[in-house]
Amino acid sequence: MLRFLIRRILFGILVLWIVTLGVFLLFFATSDDPAARFAGKSATPATLALVRHRLGLDDPLPVQYWHFLTRLLRGDLGYSFATQSPVTDMIKQALPASLSLILGAAVLWLAAGIVAGVISATRARTLLDRGITLAVLLGISMPAFIVGLTLSYVFAVKLQIFPQTQYVPIQNNPLQWFEHMVLPWITLALLQSAIYTRLTRGSLLDVLGEDYIRTARAKGLPERRVIYRHGLRSALTPVVTQAGVDIGVLIGGTLVTESVFGLQGIGQLTVQSLTIGDLPVIMGVVLIAAFFVVLGNLVVDVVYSFLDPRVRLS
Amino acid sequence: MSLLEVRDLKVSFDTSDGLVQAVRGVSFTVERGKTLGIVGESGSGKSVSTQTLLGLTAGALIDGEALFEGQDLLAMTDEQLRRVRGKEIAMIFQDPLSSLHPLYKVGKQIAEMIRQHEPDVNKAQARKRAIELLGMVGIPEPGQRVDDYPHQFSGGMRQRAMIAMSLALNPKLIVADEPTTALDATVQAQILDLMLRLQREFDTALIMITHDLGVIADLADDVLVMYGGKPVEHADRRSLYYRPHHPYTKGLLESIPGSTGAKTRLKPIGGQPPSLINLPTGCAFHPRCEYVMDRCVTEEPLLAAVGDKDGFPDLGHTSACWLPKEAAGLDAEAENLRQEAVALGRSADSPAATVVDAGEAQ
C-alpha cells in the first residue's frame, strides 16, 4: 500500500514538473518582451536593460528555468505585471471561493446524481427512467449562465430567498458563506448531476447483469440489499474515479458560474490575466490548476485502492 | 411426494428480435437425496429451466408448475421465493470467479447468507460456521483463508467456496449449473468427488446441469437430455448410457473422449444448435440428424416409452424420436434397426433427402 502510494506521488510530481517546463517555455514563446511589459510603456532602453537584469532575463534559459523552479518551490510565483502584487497572494485570495464552490457543489451533484442514477437503473425503461433521462438531457444541454442567471433572478432578485452574489469567506461568517454559496452550488451541481446520473445508471446496469448479482439473489438476499450492498458498491467505483478527476479539473475552470455569481475564484483570475496578457498570473493559475488535477487523481487512486481490493495487491 | 416436481414448464423471452422460446415444455421430478442430470448444448434451455424455478430469469414469460414439497415455486410471491433461495434450494454456477462478489471477502459472503436466513446468528458465529464450511470443502487453513478475497483463491478453491456457500444452510436441493466447466480437468474430478461425497453426507438432492455426459456418468441417478428447449430423452443412468434411443443422446455419448474405445475417432455432432426464435419444423433436431426420415421434417415426435421392464413399456425411459422403440443402444443390432427404419422412412424426392444432401455438402 505504501509503495503504491509513493509510486503514485512520484508520478504526480513528474507530471507537475512537465507542466512547469511547459509553462516556462510558454512564457518565452509569447512574442512580448516581459521586461517591456513590466517596466511600462515610457521606459528608456537603460531602464529596460536594468529591469531585464533585475528579472534575470539576461541569463541563459536553463539558468532562468532553474531560478524559476527554485522560486516556485519556495512558493514564489513572481509578481503580476498588472498589479505588481505577488501572484501567490492573488491565488490565495481566489482559491477559497473556487474550493467552496466546487467542493460544495460536488456533494450536491454526487448525492443527486447517484440517487437519480439508481432510480433510473432499477426502473430501467419505465416512464420514470425516461423522465429522468429527459431531465438529464435538459440539464446537460442547458448552458451554465442560463441556469445561473435564471436561479439568480428568481431566488435572489424576485423571491429574495438568497442574497445576491459576492463571496463571503467562511471564516468571517459561516452562515452568510453558506447563504451566498447555495445558488452557485445548485447551478454547478445541476449540470454535473446530469452527467453523474447517466454515469451511475450505466455503471449500475452493467453491474446488475454480473454473475455475482445472480449469486446474491440466489442466496436469498432481499432485493434492496442486492442492489445497494452488492450492486451499487461495485457501480460506484467509476463514479468515484470520475468525481476525483472532475473536482480537480473544475477547480481551475468554473469560469461561467463564478462570473454569474461574482465569485472571485481561480476561473475569473484566469480570464482576467489572459485578457491583459498578465503572464506571471497565467503561469500561476495554470500551475495551480495542474496541481489540483494531479491531486484529484492521486486521491482517486488512494480511494480506489480502498474500494477495490484487487488494486491493492497489484 | 417428490421433493421437486416440474410439470410442463415453458419459458420464453420477448426480445426485439422476436419471441425466444428458451424452454418449450419440460417435466421432471427430483426425489429426496437423489441426483438428476440435465444434459444439453448451450441454448438447449437447461440453465433457463432451473434458474426460472428460483425466479432468477428476469423478464421471462413463464408457464407451468414447479412443486417443491407441494408448493408451486412459480406461483410464490417474491418474499416467499426469497426464503426458499439459498435456504431450501441452493445454486452453484459455472464460473466461480464471476459468481463471487470481487469486493467482499469470501468468508463474509458465506456469513452474509447465513445471517440473512438465520437472524439470530451473530457475526462471530456466522464467521465460525463459514470457517467450518471452508474446511469441510477442503480449503487449507480455512481460519486464514476466510478473510481472503475471491481473486486470492485459485479457480478450484473458488468453486469449493461456492460449494461451501451452497451447503451453508443445509438445503434440500442444490442446483449445480455446469460447476466444473470452467475448471481444469484434474480440478474437475476433485470437485465432482467433493460434490458426490458431500451430497451423500448431507443427503441433499442434486440437479446437475452439464453439456458433458461424462461429468454425470458417476453422479446421476436419472438423466434428462434437452435439445432446443425440449426434453428429447429421459432415463435412468444405466439405460441412458447403454441403451440410448434418441440420435442426439447417441451423438453426445459418441463425442465423449474415450467412450467408444481408443481406436475410433471422436464423432462430433455436425451443425449448430437451432435458433430459439425460428425453430425447425417437425423435430427440432432433424437438420442435424443422420437418421432423418420424411416425417421428422413435418411431425414433431413426443416423449414415448422406449424401454421394456418385465414385459411392460418402461415409463422411466422415454424418448422423443420417430425411430422404432427397439432401435435403442450403441451396438450393431440397434444400428441395423435404425438403418432399416431410415430406408423405409425416406422417399427419393423427400424433404429428408434434401436435408441429408445439405448436410453432406457442408
From TrEMBL, chain A:
This is Peptide ABC transporter permease. It comes from Actinoallomurus iriomotensis. The chain crosses the membrane at residues 9-29, 97-119, 131-157, 281-307. Keywords: Cell membrane, Membrane, Transmembrane, Transmembrane helix, Transport. It is found in: Cell membrane. PROSITE patterns: ABC_TM1 (PS50928). GO terms for biological process: transmembrane transport. It is a multi-pass membrane protein.
UniProtKB/TrEMBL annotation, chain B:
Residues 4-253 form the ABC transporter domain. It comes from the Bacteria. It is a peripheral membrane protein. It is found in: Cell membrane. GO terms for biological process: peptide transport. GO terms for molecular function: ATP binding; ATP hydrolysis activity. InterPro entries: AAA+_ATPase (IPR003593), ABC_Ni/Peptide_Import (IPR050388), ABC_transporter-like_ATP-bd (IPR003439), ABC_transporter-like_CS (IPR017871), Oligopep_ABC_C (IPR013563), P-loop_NTPase (IPR027417). Pfam families: ABC_tran, oligo_HPY. The keyword Nucleotide-binding applies. Gene3D superfamilies: P-loop containing nucleotide triphosphate hydrolases (3.40.50.300). GO terms for cellular component: plasma membrane. Keywords: ATP-binding, Cell membrane, Membrane, Nucleotide-binding, Transport. Its main location: membrane. Belongs to the ABC transporter superfamily. NCBIfam families: oligo_HPY. This is Dipeptide/oligopeptide/nickel ABC transporter ATP-binding protein. It comes from Actinoallomurus iriomotensis. The lineage of its organism: Bacteria, Bacillati, Actinomycetota, Actinomycetes, Streptosporangiales.
